[in-house]
């Protein structure tokens, strides 16, 4: 018999918390006062130190906590769904109102504001997809007004390999990259700091269990291979990208840094927030059989509201509120995460626990929903005006970009992802 | 005072060995009878077990050997040039004729034929370049006969991120990948085993010391960041590639396996085999300043002869000699390895010890020099005939591809790289 799920926590800041109420329980890696990084769970304004509370866990849940040793969640991700669900169920008991764990609060809980967050896992490979169909159309229109989507788009979950070594947690500064660019009207490139620095709003996906090289993950098994989710800012140097990307794709225009929010929001926490896909209209082709799973497609993609905010140095000096650049939703993903996993491994490519996927930029079709400045300003042609009196075509030094996400549904507590922040600093 | 370099080894199979004479001394990771992988040096038909011989080393050379503990050379690569050179000098003494180490032969030497080779390092990121200008032209001609090279080619060392998780040592079987392809004349893709499986002949480059994110490696410092070299087969599914690669580059068409030869041939061993670049003709643009280093460009690229052989199952049954598909040379690299390192990091991208670069396919301009079947058969239009009576447009199940390399120069002992082998097995 299933117990009714508790809804209130003895950690009082969790009750009604915008991101981390009792219903979320994301995992991450933190340190405090220069200590070794260790695993924790976000609850309200606090972090539960999993190892300090180790003796509260047994069975599968204890196995899960033990796999988080060493300041990296890879071994925990590799365990798959069973131990992760057992951990969640035990955490719900321990953190619910009335739990005896409250007596040990001083020992097991830290204020998040006192902690530093780290990457949750060692990332072996990072893949950036392109499943945001509105972004693909918006960008395609800039180059091919009559035919914005390429013929493969509605058959292939397009993706490409990204750089793993420069993925960093929220808060890491974004050094403006230098590189080659081709000035308008010229035939020879020049070298210097990027002049068209942009953000891209993406959902990040943490891979759980891996597969052996040569094996494929069937779409029906994909859930076992998805550990959780984060926000991802795929910082992009548009001028470097335009000059370098033919014929093999983006390279240095993307590899200077990629920022992620540090908390891993689990598939279990997001389960109530799936919704059948409106992005695949009548008349679109059926997915090929290896991408077809009626249960997955009936459950649909996630309904997660996504937001991008800009704060310039002048705005901070004038105490002006952040400027909202984007309000979008993960419903603009043309492919589900299960489809991305099945596609990535269909050729026998080995996925490993702790691999990271980016969804690609998640724009909506309307102004106000565009997930990059490239789309918002039409490649710099239509600058935006800020309350500070400044204008922006692309990002300037001192600009901070903040990504947020929020899941809401009638009858369920809202949950969020925390933030993914980055401030641009001058080129060296 | 420099001692004259010894030329003959007490390991008699080394003297005149096609790949591993005393002058080469490449490093690798091996195991024997299921033992834990450990570091070794190839010498003739044998492998010197570095740890069994540890007490023969002191100072910088000992530091180098100690950094090879654990069956991965990453920490050794990170040490940079000094300890690597000290190790080489001591190995030359220990393995030269007359060395007392011969008395310990049974303890420190294994027959290579009894050993299994492993990847030499944990590869964090893999980047595939496109610096083989003749390949770029040959492939470009198939699509754009009048304008085969894109405008960025002679300014930008073009590269893209590859998949690190599926890099394997020579001898690993090559499972034919499955995927989406667009049949000629159709508008809807089908799914099935790749029908246009190809090899690509490349030089692999192992990265030595890394750089911090945000820093760039100046071209004059690049040598400190290059640990050594191998052969690399960038197996390619041409039909999957043609359908998937727009707009973000190759993905599943390359990520099913990449094979490397297991021995790391050092920059020191290759030093005599550099030669000023013939590939950059008069009238080509000067490299931008960050890619310009007169010492590097005067030394030039490597003069390494490269060979690809094919053996089909029928040829092996009939005891027929391997069929030579390609005889090419690293002189067809338009950019030096130092230029590749400087370019990769100019945007602040962090390189790490054990990262791997591929050069891109190293074709020559003439028939017989093409480094892929795509070029040899003009995309399947001109099948090749084999002594077995078979024909090939692309690779069939049972076909084995063997890459070899050889450096020769008047007055110097020739050295080689060993082999990079892979046999195609049927799709699952």
TrEMBL record, chains A, B:
Coiled-coil boundaries: none
Swiss-Prot/TrEMBL cofactor(s): Ca(2+); Mg(2+)
Q: Which residues bind Ca(2+)?
A: 128, 200, 202, 234
Q: Which GO terms describe its molecular function?
A: fumarylacetoacetase activity; lyase activity; metal ion binding
EC number(s) given by UniProt: 3.7.1.2
Name its pathway. Answer: Amino-acid degradation; L-phenylalanine degradation; acetoacetate and fumarate from L-phenylalanine: step 6/6
EC primary class:
hydrolase
Q: Which UniProt keywords apply?
A: Calcium, Hydrolase, Lyase, Magnesium, Metal-binding, Phenylalanine catabolism, Tyrosine catabolism
Give residues annotated as binding Mg(2+). Answer: 234, 254, 258
Q: Where is the Fumarylacetoacetase-like C-terminal domain?
A: 134-425
Q: What is this protein called?
A: fumarylacetoacetase
Question: Origin organism of this chain?
Answer: Pseudomonas antarctica
Classification from the root reads: Bacteria, Pseudomonadati, Pseudomonadota, Gammaproteobacteria, Pseudomonadales
């Amino acid at each position: 018999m299933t117990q009714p799920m508790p809804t209130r926590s003895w950690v009082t800041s969790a009750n009604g918390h915008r991101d981390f109420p009792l219903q979320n329980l994301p995992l991450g890696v933190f340190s405090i006062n220069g200590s070794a990084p260790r695993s924790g769970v976000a609850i309200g304004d606090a972090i539960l130190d999993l190892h300090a509370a180790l003796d509260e866990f047994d069975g599968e849940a204890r196995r899960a906590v033990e796999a988080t040793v060493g300041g990296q969640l890879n071994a925990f991700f590799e365990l798959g769904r069973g131990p992760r669900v057992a951990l969640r169920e035990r955490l719900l008991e321990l953190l619910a109102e009335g739990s005896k764990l409250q007596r040990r609060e001083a020992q097991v809980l830290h204020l998040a504001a006192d902690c530093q967050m780290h990457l949750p896992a060692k990332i072996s490979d990072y893949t950036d997809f392109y499943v945001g169909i509105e972004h693909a159309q918006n960008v395609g229109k800039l180059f091919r007004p009559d035919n914005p989507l390429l013929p493969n788009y509605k058959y292939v979950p397009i993706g490409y390999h990204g750089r793993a070594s420069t993925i960093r947690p929220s808060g890491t500064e974004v050094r403006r990259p230098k590189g080659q660019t081709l000035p308008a009207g010229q035939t020879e490139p020049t070298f210097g700091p990027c002049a068209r620095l942009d953000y891209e709003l993406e959902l990040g996906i943490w891979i759980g269990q891996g597969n052996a090289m040569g094996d494929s993950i069937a779409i029906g098994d994909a859930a076992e291979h998805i550990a959780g989710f984060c926000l991802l800012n795929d910082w992009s140097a548009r001028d470097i990208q335009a000059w370098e990307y033919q014929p093999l794709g983006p390279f240095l225009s993307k590899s200077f840094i990629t920022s992620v929010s540090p908390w891993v929001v689990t598939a279990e926490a997001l389960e109530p927030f799936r919704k059948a896909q409106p992005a695949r209209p009548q008349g679109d082709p059926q997915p090929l059989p290896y991408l077809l799973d009626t249960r997955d497609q009936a459950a649909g993609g996630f309904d997660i509201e996504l937001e991008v905010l800009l704060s310039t140095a002048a705005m901070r000096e004038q105490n002006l509120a952040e400027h909202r650049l984007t309000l979008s939703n993960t419903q603009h993903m043309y492919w589900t995460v299960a489809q991305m996993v099945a596609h990535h491994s269909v050729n026998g490519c080995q996925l490993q626990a702790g691999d990271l996927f980016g969804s690609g930029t998640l724009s909506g079709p309307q102004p106000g929903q565009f997930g990059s400045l490239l789309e918002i300003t039409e490649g710099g042609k239509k600058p935006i005006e800020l309350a500070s009196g400044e204008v922006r075509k692309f990002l300037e030094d001192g600009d901070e970009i903040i990504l947020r996400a929020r899941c809401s549904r009638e009858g369920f507590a809202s949950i969020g992802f925390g933030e993914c922040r980055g401030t641009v600093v001058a080129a060296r």
